[in-house]
Amino acid sequence: MIVALSGCSSWGCTDTRAKRGEAGTRVQIENSSGRRIGVTTEVVDWRLEPHPQVPSEGDKVHFHYRFDGADPASGPAVDACAVDKERVALGCRTVYSSGAWSGPNGALTGDDWLTVEHPEQVADVLLLPNDQSYDRRTCQQDIKDGGGTHPPKPAGRGDQL
């Protein structure tokens, strides 16, 4: 007699993280399988300046970005990082196309701020092409339905990009 339970597999459940893509000021967004999804995002400009709500905290990195080809309601998200001249991340955050507004030619545009310890070291603001908008359930969260390929770990201070 063989007993089989519905939804169980002898293969087990495994989680893998996708490899981090090459950072740039303009990138083609990739899903967790490394395939381009038809959306481009870029840093339009950036500058150091005090945030208007907390000017006493000194300079922060104020950057503008654009998503071309993204769905305004549920589009992708990417990590944006201020980097030094050796492309070491000084500060990062995830920006979502859903947080941007419609701009010229249907592009979604937005702006955000990065806080870094030494603003004078910022040489550029780079984007990572990996879509961070959807992190599927992990084996630990759901042994039956979890597992599979997930986006790379989000970028953070000290990461070499």
Structure description:
It is a single chain. The protein has 161 residues and is mainly beta. The protein is 0% helix and 40% strand. It is built from no helices and ten strands. A five-stranded antiparallel β-sheet has the order 2-3-4-8-7, with no helix packed on it. Strands 6-5-9 form a three-stranded antiparallel β-sheet, with no helix packed on it. It has a two-stranded parallel ribbon with strand order 1-10. The chain starts with 14 loop residues before the first strand and ends in an 11-residue tail after the last strand. 29% of the residues are buried.
Question: Brief overview, please?
Answer:
The chain has 161 residues and is mainly β.
Strand order of the largest sheet: 2-3-4-8-7
**Which regions are unreliable across 5 or more consecutive residues at pLDDT < 50?**
1-10
Q: So what's the overall shape?
A: globular
Mean pLDDT: 88
The secondary-structure element order is: EEEEEEEEEE
Question: Roughly what fraction of the amino acids lie in strands?
Answer: 35-45%
Termini separation comes to 56 Å
The total strand number stands at 10
Q: Helix amount, in percent?
A: under 10%
Computed CA radius of gyration, to the nearest angstrom: 19 Å
Main attributes of the structure:
mainly beta, 161 residues, globular, 5-stranded antiparallel β-sheet, disordered N terminus
